[in-house]
């Protein structure tokens, strides 16, 4: 039995240890835009990474118009000459719920527009348009903050020029938060983004961040504005150091110190009213924070309020002590309301008691996320961009089709209801000075209906893979430098009605399937290609050779030329040897002649001596005289 208890305790310890270790620290990425080295900012020594290799643009000295932004001295701006869309594409971001904040800056240069106006999108969804005068505010206008689910391993943050100065970005923060942070109802999740419109700490004397409140690190680092006036200077603030959070009523990502102060109405104006400017015809999520810290209220029923938004009561009979479970405990109320006008007014009207009270207010715009473009088609366009060498002025950064206010120039989009994604149905890049080649990856654009690349300097062969884009109706590749033959696969494009290949360097027989299409009211133009043949109006083709036969003939010709060259080389070397021998013989001729004459005289002398000796012997000795 003792062993069993020991084993059980050991098992519980291991399970508990695993649960503790499984809650890893939240993902944090802070980028100091334009910085060449990592930066630490005072007083907390917060680390900001340099942004090398994240994006294009130009690094420059910069400044922030507000104390809210981090104390950084560089920024990155994006001139229109580099394209109307520019993006930070941050990779290896774990799946999760994130607070994404982008701080705006101004270039320290007199010749620059001191207040650029541009649009900001996150993951293809337009979330913010900088208003005129944003640089003169110490509030949420100097940065944009969104809460979004990221589930594809990347974070795409894009800045879209609107013709009013070059976008300039000071810093970017991506902070992982609790998956249930700011849950506002059934619409909460991966199909929505919420953007901070206003965040107020009603009892605070100065604006502060969560870091000043010792906020939980799973809630991010949020900025809370103080309220200068609330009503007609008829408000009064109260604070306490004894208030605590109620974990049963308030999620654990709220900083506890916002409940240690509150704004209390007066006898002259018992109700509290706050009005904030908003964009019309949108939904807003409103979060109201309460804690009964007034010493005069000790039990339930002593303070009861009705809370209304734009005149409609959304929370009747709010009793903080009763709903929070006691005094000095937190209560959070949330509702989502559609607003048709340009103001959102919150009114707290006391029913029991003489005053209304509130600790903090948060207002978020609820944004429906845009459906993205099919990933395979995005990759096809990126391959086309690289192969054609698109100029920077065209941009082609981010998502081709969204936000819908800023699609890529030269790419036509259509929403596909089957996949609930955007697809590319047209490419129009005529007369753009393109000098690359047409890649096989263009076949990834399976929904193309028209392609116009005329009037450029594109070279190389027409890719056979183009014949797999069966939806293609118009193909204009005229006045380029395409060479080689027309692929037989183009004959498979049964929907093709217009084909312009004139003004190139194409050769060979026109595919029979294309030639027959001329009888079905299709408009084809093959002129100004000296090597094309096979249809009326073009030269008659000779014996048609397959590609294999052409290769065989070429190899045979090469072998024949090599053989002839070898024979000529051998003949030339033999001739050189003969001439060399003749030259040697001619040089040694006198010596050889004299030696030959000497040998002949010796032989004759020997012959005469021999004959004379035989005569003497035969005749006997001579007579003595």
Q: Tell me, what's the shape?
A: elongated
| Residue-averaged pLDDT | 82
Portion of residues in beta strands equals 25-35%
Poorly predicted runs of 5 or more residues: 212-220, 228-235, 241-252, 615-625
Number of strands: 36
Alpha-beta content class: alpha+beta
Span of the ends, CA to CA? 166 Å
Number of helices: 7
| Biggest pleated sheet | 15 strands, mixed
Helix share, percent: 10-25%
As a whole number of angstroms, the C-alpha radius of gyration is 45 Å
Transmembrane segments: 551-572
Domain Malectin-like: 31-366
Keywords: Membrane, Signal, Transmembrane, Transmembrane helix
Membrane topology: Single-pass membrane protein
Give a written overview of the molecule.
There is one protein chain. The protein contains seven helices and 36 strands. The strands form six sheets. It has a 15-stranded mixed β-sheet that branches. A six-stranded mixed β-sheet has the order 27-28-29-31-33-35, with no helix packed on it. The chain is an alpha+beta fold and 625 residues long. A hairpin with a 4-residue loop joins strand 2 and strand 3 (46-50). It is a single-pass membrane protein.
Identify the notable features of this structure and list them briefly.
625 residues, alpha+beta, 15-stranded mixed sheet, six-stranded mixed sheet, elongated, disordered C terminus, Malectin-like domain-containing protein, membrane, transmembrane helix
Task: Give a topology summary.
Layout (H helix, E strand, L loop, with lengths): L1 H21 L5 E5 L6 E3 L4 E5 L7 E6 L10 E4 L7 E7 L4 E9 L1 E2 L9 E6 L2 E5 L13 E8 L3 E11 L3 E10 L14 E10 L6 E2 H4 L9 E4 L9 E4 L21 E4 L7 E6 L4 E10 L12 E6 L2 E7 L1 H5 L5 E10 L3 E10 L4 E2 L1 E9 L6 H14 L22 E6 L4 E8 L21 E3 L6 E2 L13 E3 L4 E4 L13 E3 L4 E5 L2 H6 L5 E3 L5 E3 L13 H41 L1 H31 L6
Parallel strand pairs: 1-3, 14-16, 28-29, 29-31, 30-32, 31-33, 32-34, 33-35, 34-36
Antiparallel strand pairs: 1-13, 2-3, 4-5, 4-8, 5-13, 6-12, 7-11, 7-13, 9-10, 9-12, 11-14, 14-26, 15-16, 17-18, 18-25, 19-24, 20-23, 20-26, 21-22, 21-24, 27-28
């Amino acid at each position: 039995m003792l062993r069993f208890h020991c084993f059980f305790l050991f098992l519980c310890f291991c399970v508990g240890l695993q649960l503790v270790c499984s809650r890893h620290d939240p993902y944090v990425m802070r980028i100091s835009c334009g910085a060449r080295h990592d930066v630490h900012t005072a007083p907390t020594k917060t680390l900001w990474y340099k942004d090398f290799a994240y994006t294009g643009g130009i690094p420059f000295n910069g400044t922030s118009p507000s104390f809210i932004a981090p104390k950084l001295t560089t920024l990155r701006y994006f001139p229109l000459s580099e394209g109307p869309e520019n993006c930070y594409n941050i990779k290896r971001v774990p799946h999760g719920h994130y607070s994404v904040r982008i701080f705006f800056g101004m270039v320290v240069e007199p010749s620059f527009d001191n207040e650029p106006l541009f649009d900001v999108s996150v993951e293809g969804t337009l979330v913010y348009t900088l208003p005129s005068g944003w640089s003169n505010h110490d509030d949420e206008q100097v940065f944009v903050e969104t809460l979004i689910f990221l589930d594809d391993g990347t974070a795409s943050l894009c800045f879209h020029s609107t013709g009013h100065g070059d976008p300039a970005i000071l810093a970017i923060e991506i902070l992982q938060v609790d998956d249930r942070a700011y849950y506002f109802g059934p619409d909460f999740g991966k199909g929505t983004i919420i953007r901070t419109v206003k965040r107020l700490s009603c009892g605070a004397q100065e604006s502060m961040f969560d870091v000043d409140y010792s906020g939980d690190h799973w809630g991010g680092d949020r900025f809370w504005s103080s309220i200068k006036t609330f009503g007609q200077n008829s408000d009064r603030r109260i604070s306490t150091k004894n208030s605590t959070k109620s974990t049963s009523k308030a999620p654990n990502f709220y900083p506890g110190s916002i409940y240690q102060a509150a704004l209390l109405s007066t006898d002259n104006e018992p109700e509290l009213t706050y009005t904030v400017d908003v964009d019309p015809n949108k939904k807003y999520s409103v979060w109201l924070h309460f804690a009964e810290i007034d010493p005069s209220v000790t039990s339930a029923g002593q303070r009861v309020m009705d809370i209304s938004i734009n005149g409609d009561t959304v929370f009747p009979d709010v009793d903080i002590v009763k709903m929070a479970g006691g005094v000095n405990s937190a209560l959070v109320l949330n509702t989502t309301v559609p607003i048709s006008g340009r103001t959102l007014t919150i009114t707290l009207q006391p029913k029991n008691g003489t005053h209304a009270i509130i600790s903090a207010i948060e207002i978020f715009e609820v944004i429906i996320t845009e459906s993205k473009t099919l990933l395979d088609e995005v990759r096809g366009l990126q391959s086309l961009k690289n192969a054609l060498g698109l100029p920077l002025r065209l941009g082609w950064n981010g998502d081709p089709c969204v936000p819908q206010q800023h699609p890529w120039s030269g790419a036509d989009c259509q929403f596909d209801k089957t996949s609930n994604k955007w697809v590319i149905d047209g490419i129009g890049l005529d007369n753009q000075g393109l000098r690359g080649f047409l890649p096989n990856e263009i076949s990834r654009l399976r929904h193309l209906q028209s392609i116009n690349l005329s009037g450029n300097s594109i070279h190389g062969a027409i890719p056979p893979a183009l014949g797999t884009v069966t939806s293609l109706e118009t193909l204009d590749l005229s006045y380029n430098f395409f060479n080689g033959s027309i692929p037989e696969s183009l004959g498979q494009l049964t929907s093709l009605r217009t084909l312009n290949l004139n003004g190139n360097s194409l050769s060979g027989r026109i595919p029979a399937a294309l030639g027959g299409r001329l009888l079905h009211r299709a408009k084809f133009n093959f002129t100004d290609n000296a090597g094309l043949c096979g249809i009326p109006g073009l030269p008659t083709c000779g014996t048609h050779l397959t590609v294999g036969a052409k290769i065989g003939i070429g190899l045979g010709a090469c072998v024949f030329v090599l053989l002839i060259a070898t024979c000529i080389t051998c003949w030339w070397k033999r001739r050189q040897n003969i001439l060399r021998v003749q030259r040697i013989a001619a040089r040694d001729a006198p010596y050889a002649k004299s030696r030959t004459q000497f040998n002949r005289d010796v032989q004759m002398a020997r012959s005469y001596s021999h004959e004379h000796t035989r005569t003497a012997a035969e005749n006997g000795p001579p007579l003595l005289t």
